Amino acid sequence: MQRLLPLLLLLLAPALPAAAQARDDVFPYALKTERLPNGLTVVRVPFRSPGLVAYYSVVRVGSRNEVEPGKTGFAHFFEHMMFKGTKKHPEGERDRIVASYGFDDNAFTTDDFTVYHAYGPTAGLDALIELEADRFRNLEYAEPSFRTEALAVLGEYHKNESRPELKMEERLLGTAFQKHTYRHTTLGFYEDIKAMPEAYAYSRSFFERWYTPDNTIIFIVGDFDDAAVMKAIQEHYGPWARKAAQLNMPTEPPQKEKRTAHIDWASSTLPRHVLAWHTPAGSLTTPSAAIQSVLAAYLVGPTSPLYKELVLEKQLAEFIGSDFYPHRDPHLLNLIATLKAEDNRAAVDAALTRAVRELASGKVDAARVKAIQSNIRYGLLMNLEAPDDVGVQLALYAGIFGTPDALSRHLQNVSRVQPEQLVAFARSYLVDTNLTVLTLTPANGGKQ
């Protein structure tokens, strides 16, 4: 799967009307939350969408959980295997039933969690609940099917490595991280993917350890009968009885000096330049995630002086931005530039560095900070036009922060960020000893 999370988390749109801005509760829809005795959290969100419902299952397992040497890529692999079937619904039957109702049905994997989602008619909701509960409880696949899908995952890697982004991510993470599992991508290390067909027994244990009710949150958004939904949920998910494994997460040691990494890209593309600093984990009880969300937009967002200078006026860069989003453990805040030519690299690097140092010196535009806060907070809410929009945003933030109301609480934290907090954060974390610089130079030198 392509990593769409940064785009989904950083949706920007015009501000909401003043009446909506005045709400104390920044999320406009009620969450009805119940935790079953087995630990499964079920969240229902009534939404005016006659005849339509979105169904999101968030499993808090991602590439972060892959701590065993030689066993990376399995969180993503299970995104594939979860569509294989069960004894009750053999391979292909679930797809046929889902398609017969007209559901859109898919999944995606991230560093920290995996999401399964379906969107379609309420008339098929009872059938969908039974199908989803069955595969989460009773997934079955034979070793030949496992081997076939493992080869498909290897093919997915080969497809992705033809683009610069995968190799850039691999090199950046492998340079910035020495111990933590964030040092590999969601796809996993290439050697581990090649060896995956021989790991059938391990795959079964991975499923048993992480696909558990106490590690899963379900969001149901749209037009449905709440009592009937909860009755079906309790009937089909109630017998699910596994418990999530305990994880001994390796701690990343502090970085003590600037690191660099370079890629010579064999084919024609534009040069790339990335600055990345280690920053704190996402949390709803501290301001770090909210500060970084605002800070990324402040430094390189489309309203930033840097964007105006480098992209619009001097045209040294095709694009500047950041794909920052919060992580469960300390990760990276990055600034990314796609250069129009290799000759522009020094000037772009100098401009990015200057902007960071100016902020750390105390120079901050309070009015622009406030505008960015409004755009992040209300712009995202303006995009909640359909049950599927609501479901995906709730799922993404719940996957990161581990609580159903994470989206609302994060947006509240964003609204509380003060300009001086950006300055203090830059002084503490955006320093050279904490920095990794990644450069990519294409074979043509970036000349198009």
TrEMBL record:
Residues 1-22 form the signal peptide. Keywords: Signal. Residues 204-375 form the Peptidase M16 C-terminal domain. InterPro entries: Metalloenz_LuxS/M16 (IPR011249), MPP/UQCRC_Complex (IPR050361), Pept_M16_N (IPR011765), Peptidase_M16_C (IPR007863). Belongs to the peptidase M16 family. It comes from Hyalangium rubrum. It comes from the Bacteria. Gene3D superfamilies: Metalloenzyme, LuxS/M16 peptidase-like (3.30.830.10). This is Pitrilysin family protein. Residues 58-187 form the Peptidase M16 N-terminal domain.
